Amino acid sequence: MTTRNDDEKVPEQPPRLAWAKHVPEVYRTMMRLDAVAREGLDPVVTELVKIRASQLNQCAFCLDMHTKDALAAGETVDRIVQLGAWRGSRHYYTERELAALELTEAMTLLTDGFVPDEVYDRAAAHFDAPELARLISAITVTNAWNRVAVTTRAVPGHYSPGRFQS
Description:
The chain is an all-alpha fold and about 170 residues long. It has 8 helices and no strands.
């Protein structure tokens, strides 16, 4: 990776804990849960919600992973860049994707202690019941992964696209 000038980059912080090494059964279960949650979901929608949840949770490792996976799957740089401000750049996304992003934010932040009915209803209008259940599961699993990666300080920048996909 190069810098824009001759300034020296700040060194990487080491991870705090090799979490998967210490709880391999939990890691394998989470990997399986992640794979099952996304079965039958549009991979584009799945990566968009994973990126958005990871932005909200400030998970650098997961942002690195999901943006690389999205790009490898054919997602555009413009759509990925605009995710942080999707409400102001709605024209980049479909109504279905917007409903998924809105649900992702509501589930990830839970600032009011609940997901508003109108947010849930918009998602339910674009996803049938089995898809909606999987979308909710995928968002939940992503939030769990974010929390593990942020807490253990997983180091971004070394991920290769598709490495954790099954």
